[in-house]
Automatic annotation (TrEMBL):
This is Glycosyltransferase family 92 protein. InterPro entries: Glyco_transf_92, Nucleotide-diphossugar_trans. The keyword Transcription does not apply. One of its GO terms (cellular component) is membrane. GO terms for molecular function: glycosyltransferase activity. It comes from Protochlamydia amoebophila (strain UWE25). It is found in: Membrane.
C-alpha cells in the first residue's frame, strides 16, 4: 500500500514539474514577445536636435507641432540665450520631452558658427544612439512634416535601409506681418512663400540614424560610415554637398527664415551683419519670399 502511495506521489510530482515547465516556457515566450514589441517601438522613435538663442517664445509652437508629427524627444542646445527660457520650457522638461544642453561656445565668423552647430549635432548623435532610431537636425524656424499628413515615423519606415533622409526647404517670408502676438500662432500668420523653384529651396536638412553618423562638416548633412549616402524622398542618393534637386511630395520643411518683421529687422539682420557687410541682401531676399500664397500648415486655411 505504501509503495502505491509513493508511486502516486511521484507521478503527481512529475506532473506538476511538467506543468510548471510549460508555464515557465509560456512566461518566457510572453516576455520575449513583449521585449520584441518594445524594441519595435524604439525602432520607430524619432528625436530632434536644434540650437536656440534668443528665440524662446517661438519654441513652444515648434515643439508642439513636431510632437504632433510623431517626435518623441527634443535635444535643445542653449547657445547664450538671455531670455527666461526655463519658464517657457519647464512643462516640456518636466514631461521628459525636452532635454536642454548648455552650449556656451563663442563665434566670430560664419565658419565658427558652422563648427559650433556641427559639434552640437555630433553630441546629439551620441546622446541619441541606442535611444532613437532617427534624429532630425533642424533649426527652430524649420517645420518638418509629411505632406500626406502621416506620422513622420510612418513615412520613415519606407527608408529603413538608408542611413539618412534629406528633406528640402520651402522658404517663407514675413508675410508682411509686423509682430506675432503671444496669443497668435506663427503658422497661422506666415502664409506667403517663395516660388518652389526659388534657389534657396534646393537646400535641405537631414533626418539621420545616429549610429550611422561618422562626422559632420556642414549642418545640412553628414558623412556616414562605410561611405554610405543619405537618400532623398525619391530614394535617390544624396551627398551632403549635393544641392541639385528638389522634391517635396512626401516630406517637406517649411522654413520661416525671417519670422515676423520685428524679428527680421531686430534679430535676423543683426546676425547677418555679424557675418556680412550691408543689409540690402537679406532685405531683397526676404521680399522674394512673400510671393505665393500657401497656408499648408495654417489651422485657419480654407
Amino acid at each position: 500500500m505504501h509503495i502505491f502511495k509513493l508511486i502516486n506521489l511521484n507521478f503527481m510530482f512529475n506532473n506538476i514539474k511538467r506543468k510548471y515547465s510549460k508555464l515557465k516556457l509560456i512566461f518566457i515566450f510572453i516576455l520575449c514577445a513583449f521585449q520584441k514589441i518594445e524594441g519595435i517601438k524604439a525602432q520607430k522613435s524619432l528625436a530632434i536636435c536644434t540650437l536656440f538663442q534668443n528665440e524662446s517664445k517661438y519654441l513652444p509652437e515648434w515643439i508642439e507641432f513636431h510632437e504632433n508629427q510623431g517626435v518623441s524627444h527634443f535635444f535643445l542646445y542653449n547657445h547664450f540665450c538671455t531670455e527666461d527660457w526655463q519658464d517657457i520650457l519647464k512643462k516640456y522638461i518636466d514631461r521628459g520631452l525636452v532635454e536642454v544642453i548648455n552650449w556656451p561656445y563663442e563665434y566670430a565668423t560664419a565658419a565658427d558658427w558652422t563648427r559650433i552647430q556641427c559639434r552640437a549635432y555630433m553630441d546629439a548623435a551620441l546622446r541619441s544612439k541606442g535611444r532613437y532610431q532617427w534624429c532630425a537636425f533642424l533649426d527652430s524656424d524649420e517645420f518638418l512634416f509629411s505632406v500626406e499628413g502621416l506620422s513622420l515615423c510612418e513615412v520613415l519606415k519606407e527608408y529603413k535601409y538608408a542611413p539618412g533622409v534629406v528633406v528640402n526647404w520651402v522658404m517663407y517670408g514675413t508675410s508682411h506681418v509686423e509682430k506675432i502676438s503671444e496669443s497668435e500662432k506663427m503658422l497661422d500668420l506666415l502664409i506667403w512663400r517663395a516660388p518652389l523653384d526659388f534657389p534657396a529651396n534646393l537646400h535641405f536638412k537631414t533626418i539621420a540614424k545616429p549610429e550611422e553618423i561618422k562626422n559632420c562638416f556642414n549642418p545640412h548633412g553628414f558623412i556616414f560610415h562605410n561611405e554610405k549616402n543619405a537618400v532623398d524622398e525619391n530614394h535617390q542618393p544624396k551627398a551632403f554637398s549635393d544641392w541639385n534637386s528638389f522634391s517635396v511630395n512626401k516630406l517637406r520643411i517649411n522654413h520661416y527664415w525671417s519670422r515676423d518683421k520685428e524679428f527680421f529687422y531686430q534679430v535676423k539682420i543683426a546676425r547677418r551683419f555679424k557675418f556680412f557687410e550691408g543689409g540690402e541682401e537679406p532685405i531683397a531676399f526676404e521680399a522674394a519670399m512673400n510671393v505665393e500664397y500657401d497656408p499648408i500648415l495654417s489651422s485657419k486655411k480654407d
